[in-house]
Specification:
alpha+beta; 4 helices; EC 3.1.2.2
């Protein structure tokens, strides 16, 4: 199993010079994405560029996100963290996939809660990108509800072309909007 502690020789993350400015919305990387896309049963997560190599995001827990009555499903909360962590790739201008995600659930999150998420890249070692994230209830300074450490692995676009369903890959590749095309393949678990 791959550890989540950066090895000796790992470097500080570098924000790409063309990355969106702090506070700027990142938008959906792919309109069919469960996390940030335009999906009726998705998360509807909206991320913004932060300082350095960090992002913030907001997610409101809806009735369709329940596990136990009145509480968010842990898998949905983990997906929200994963989506937020994946948004970091846009700040580095790399294509990367989730290699490992370790989540700690600190307190229950009720339906109707606005969850404030923050993620940052902590180190880079070759193709490995080490990240951390936290989710707080009600405000960026609210009670800690969950946290995660993650390892993303940089891949080439071939990863998606060789493994994705052909009709979605072909449609994404045919999009004349080059920024939208590049973002479609920036992150995928």
């Amino acid at each position: 199993m791959t550890g989540l502690t950066p090895p000796e020789g790992a470097t500080e993350p570098v924000r790409h010079p063309d990355a969106p400015a702090p506070g700027e919305p990142l938008g959906a990387h792919y309109d069919q994405c469960f996390g940030c896309g335009d999906q009726s049963r998705g998360l509807g997560l909206s991320a913004r560029a932060g300082e350095g190599v960090s992002v913030t995001a907001d997610f409101t827990v809806g009735a369709g996100h329940q596990g136990a009555p009145g509480l968010a499903h842990g898998g949905v909360l983990a997906a929200a963290l994963d989506e937020t962590l994946g948004s970091l790739n846009w700040l580095q201008r790399v294509i990367a996939v989730t290699g490992r995600l370790e989540t700690d659930f600190v307190r229950p999150v009720p339906v109707g809660t606005e969850l404030h998420l923050e993620a940052r890249v902590t180190a880079v070692h070759g193709r490995k990108i080490y990240c951390s994230a936290a989710g707080r209830i009600g405000s960026p300074d609210g009670p800690l509800a969950l946290r995660a450490q993650a390892l993303f692995i940089e891949v080439r676009v071939d990863h998606f072309i060789e493994n994705g369903r052909a009709e979605e890959i072909d449609a994404a590749l045919a999009d004349p909007d080059q920024v939208k095309l590049a973002r479609a393949f920036e992150v995928n678990p």
